[in-house]
Amino acid sequence: MPPVPLSALKAPPSPRETMQRERDQSRGTFDLERMCYAMGDGEYNVKLKRRFMFELERDPLFKLSDIHDLTKDEIRERTMAKFASMAHYVTNESIPIFQQRMNLISTADPAFWTRFGVHYGLALGAVRSGGTSNQVSYWISKGMLGLQGMVGCFAMTEIKGGSNVAGLETTATFDDKTDEFIIHTPSVGATKWWIGGAAHSATHAVVFAQLIIKDMVYGVKNFMVPLRNPKTYQLLPGITIGDIGKKMGRDGIDNGWIQFTNVRIPRAYMLMKHTQVTRNGEVREPPLAQLTYGALLQGRTAMVADAASTAKKALTIAIRYAAVRRAFKVGDNEVETQLLDYPIHQRRLLPLLAQAVAMGFTSFRMSALFEHMTEQLESLDASSDAQETAEVLEKLKETHATSAGLKAFCTWNALETIEKCRASLGGHGYSAYSNLPSMYNDQAVQCTWEGDNTILTLQSGRSLVSSYGDALKGTKLPGGTSYLNGLPSILTTSCPSNSATLELDTLQAGWDCVSANVVKQAYEKFDEALKSGKAKGREEALEACSQERFVAAKVHTAGYLFRMFREALVELAKDEPADNGVIPTLESICRLYGCWAIEENAQHFLKYRFFSPAQMDIITAEVTRLCAELRKCAVLLTDSFDMSDHIINSPLGCYDGDIYERYFARVKEANPHQPVAPYFERVIRPLIEREPLSIDDADDIEIDDEIAEIEEERREDEEEKKGAETKEKAAKELEKPADE
Amino acid sequence: MPPVPLSALKAPPSPRETMQRERDQSRGTFDLERMCYAMGDGEYNVKLKRRFMFELERDPLFKLSDIHDLTKDEIRERTMAKFASMAHYVTNESIPIFQQRMNLISTADPAFWTRFGVHYGLALGAVRSGGTSNQVSYWISKGMLGLQGMVGCFAMTEIKGGSNVAGLETTATFDDKTDEFIIHTPSVGATKWWIGGAAHSATHAVVFAQLIIKDMVYGVKNFMVPLRNPKTYQLLPGITIGDIGKKMGRDGIDNGWIQFTNVRIPRAYMLMKHTQVTRNGEVREPPLAQLTYGALLQGRTAMVADAASTAKKALTIAIRYAAVRRAFKVGDNEVETQLLDYPIHQRRLLPLLAQAVAMGFTSFRMSALFEHMTEQLESLDASSDAQETAEVLEKLKETHATSAGLKAFCTWNALETIEKCRASLGGHGYSAYSNLPSMYNDQAVQCTWEGDNTILTLQSGRSLVSSYGDALKGTKLPGGTSYLNGLPSILTTSCPSNSATLELDTLQAGWDCVSANVVKQAYEKFDEALKSGKAKGREEALEACSQERFVAAKVHTAGYLFRMFREALVELAKDEPADNGVIPTLESICRLYGCWAIEENAQHFLKYRFFSPAQMDIITAEVTRLCAELRKCAVLLTDSFDMSDHIINSPLGCYDGDIYERYFARVKEANPHQPVAPYFERVIRPLIEREPLSIDDADDIEIDDEIAEIEEERREDEEEKKGAETKEKAAKELEKPADE
After folding, report:
1. Catalytic residue among B77, B394, B450, B599
2. CA A207, CA A181: separation in Å to the nearest integer?
3. pTM (2 decimals)?
4. Res. B644: pLDDT tops 90
5. Which of A30, A199, A413, A643 has CB atoms 3.0–4.6 Å from A254's, for a disulfide?
6. B338: distance to nearest CA of chain A, Å?
7. Beta bridge partners of A221
8. Which residues lie below 8 Å from residue A512, measured CB to CB, with a gap of 6+?
9. ipTM of this predicted structure
10. Residues 6+ apart with CB under 8 A from B689
11. Residue B427, annotated as binding a ligand
């Protein structure tokens, strides 16, 4: 290209100015404060969240800017310090308020939240749900709530097994002479593994072990087992504990392994709300095992909510960065173009924003539903009549299946969103200080614990298959699977006309039709395997259709998110002023989610002929159009997610857009200047100042010979080997750029 | 469930026994040694690789088992020590042999390989490709090859820009009085960023800067700039350098930032093979800028090869783990079922294995093609005639476009494969000692450097669009896009019959048809934007079809991998004995890749009606069937990838299958026993022994008031807020399991 005069080069507006323009241009698209309330489940919750963000930002324990450079020991020490500081709030704040505090912390500081959740959620939770009322008050009196003299952990998983709880191998053998249980780890495979808090900080463990009485095995029960002297933290006799060490993420939590060697505990340390063991070793089983599902459902809703917040956090960083980052000039731009102005970049981020918003609204609606479920479950007891029980359990089945699919796909969605946001920052997404790498590493485990996502997906698919069978028998299905009540006509519906393609009702009808068809596909594969005798029994038949079950759960869940989003919009529209832009903007987001998710699942919409190829092109064009429309208010939408710079903890996603100065400052702060490398004298000087090895060095001669042989072999090979390396080529190869 | 007698419980075979059975059962499926040669690009390369693995395993510098617990400084020091040890080989081994050594190391030890590649590939490579022959010998005489007195780095990227090289802001202003260039960093945004080796270990940098002479800007050129005194490593005047600090991965390399403040270098330090600046400041431009593409192509092929090896490494871990890991009992199994026996688990791993093999064969064929290209390019010079030049450049266009798509999708495929393998290990995939987390973190950057994958994909799509235009004009297209020579009939071909669905020729025809259609879609969107005037000029028209270009490149590349795999099979079949099972097994793998990739892109095969919905079901059934077939020899296939336990560096993927003992031993070795936490006295004891805060503590009263207010707000909200939290619900919420 021809040279240009220096004077002709035009500087773009500063990142700060660019960000200001973004907000100025979009102001008026919607009422930001009202949008915050909509996105944050109402004014009350938003204000509470803001109060907590304000408190966290001032709390020196919750400094986040330096976490990427802390050692494992340092981050664990800080985690325990935060843990201690929470004892004040948990004992002084009302439970719903404290819960809100923890929900915010789970987005801001996942590793700490985990350490806390292990004690309060898992250990105390297990005592509450598994202990008799006497046992609950006993352990609370021992300091389990106030963290005085007692810190708990939850010892379920073993090195050889986690998902299959029934297969755990740790034993709890009743000794009726001494009225004690003997807790024992029979093999390395039975070593308790991943136990959060065990490595350093827990005094007691809730242990899952096989109950054995008089050589009979009664299955896995829970036992409270003291691990350490609460004064000295010395391990108690028969307890062997080690540190699990470095993990992909969440290093703030001291995961450990535990081996028990004939450890004796009093009979009363078995949690006996359900199964009970009497003094003389009789076992009384619970009337309704299902009762324990309650907490599970709540846990899953919480994870959907967390997935939504985490995705919003990542998108806040990526969208703000894309608003101020410039690269290349397009058309007659005088200055480089903002990334956010590139259609492909809008395509990379805005559908994910729509999905995050859909997950958020879904979590709000699900928590109400699950709360209702849980209350009904609580109200059940041995005295409840069969009819009542049956109804609750029927509803439980659907809720349970839906929640399994939601947990799986929402945690996967959040993980994928973080990765795509990270990659959208280009090289800077590879810097720890962008915060996206550690967000990814922290999120990854959400897809495994609380039920491995693939297993949960298949559970959801299993339940869809049986719901389909029920629907064929004419059972009226509740909630999320009610579209199956439209069988068989629902299977053959299709988009009425090209002009109707984009109506929300059409999209909904499409999801119902396609969901019904993929569930049918799984059911028929199952049924065929069963009837043909290819499969021995239901279990094998279910295995035969596992791929189809997976697809069914995937499509069902995507459609479910769309339906929840729409229902939430209807609710919101009731109180929301028509003229403040909130509802219209959310409708565009809802339509974007619906169309994009259809595009992602296009094969099914085409295969079952709900949409024609031409109509699929209309959907694709609409996704592109909506991305361009929402791009205009994209920064304002990140503002409506209402996350402080402190919580986001990424200079590349800062509110004011001054990304390069803040990023540069963060890097310098975290990496103080060193005149020379700490290893200069040890490694660099000897290299740089060494004498060249002379060619008649004996070692060299030997190596040369070796090479000669192999070179020989190579020459022999060459006739038959087309395209074998030549020195010329290899010289080029050696020049292959590996980049910085 | 009813209790069972202890005696009735049956123990499964040990992991070691299970692994042995796997090999016993599959022995005879194919000749393992011959399969190794096929997978490893021939006997010669496989034997060389084995020799290097053997050497690495014994070299204490290449200990890998402890890398996960090293600090950033420790891993950097070790990296430099390895770097120094390579000086011997690079100066004594023939280049092709040394190159093979580095290819293995790039799979075994990516962070070290990067440090090495930055000096030899980028810095020395830039001198070789950008310097005159005098300049090349000058810098080699200064010790650039032997690492005596000189270590190089490559200073291209700036904090504000990487992809758009033309937009870089560092200046090189010619001072004709002193015959020097003044290298200067005008702003924070122009700070050189991510520069590998700059933080601590480089003495010189090849700097990309805007050439400015007499207030005219001549674009970005390369300049050799001394950074440090090679004796003391003190920074030279005007050089400011800092450490970029913590990254997502590859922490072994000391990436740094550099600011130049009026740094003067002799005119001769500008690399002048292409653009030349005379003593009096005249500029002579090169005849053919394209010449510099050569190394780029080689770099991309190398990355495809590395993506294949990295994916094979991850799959070796995941498949061996799945072979010995057991969970749940299916059907009438007496013991828990191996994960690898679950159809869904086969579906998770075996298609990725087929894809990795496809990428491997593709890289072998591409390197031959690129070598040929490069030689032709080398042979061009100012004296070449226009006709000859035009032909080479035409071929270059196609090769360049194809290589861009391959680099993007193969590095993405490898990243996704690592993540899916990691997740398939369940919780253990979250342990650093599984090695998969750091493999993921190391691989991620491959998708960004050497050209951001999204940008490369669009480049590939751009070239496909113009190829389509050429094809319409009747130009005969070479190589990868030759299917476009079949226009227009190719667009409307379809699978002749259900029975023909699975023939390799049918799959090939399908890829050709669908590739042509998606390219057509992009071309027409482009053409429409241009003709309708919606877009001002080609650039804007290309932006208007960027999503379609992305899809076109995606489908084109998947089809290209399938074609390369098939062509490689034909070649192999020539020398391979018919009866040793190698070719039939590879054909099954090739068919699996073809069918699975079709399933992944099903929407296009349905949309363009190459396959009917019924035929898509045949494809899906075949994927499931092939997964079950290849499951039988899955472990043997990992053996054919021929990677030592040392290279794999994951006790969970060890050859002998004794995963739990080795994993437990690794964790204990890496985390020596500590009686109490190092932070026990500082943090834990004060918590556990503290006095409870009494309720009349002033602080508490104040906080109680605050809470009272908010509780008040809440009560007011409740009428209008449906499903607001009740204590009962919140109590449940608090019990939400956070898991270990």
Report:
1. B450
2. 12
3. 0.93
4. yes
5. A199
6. 12
7. A209
8. A483, A486, A490, A493, A559
9. 0.92
10. A149, A231
11. no
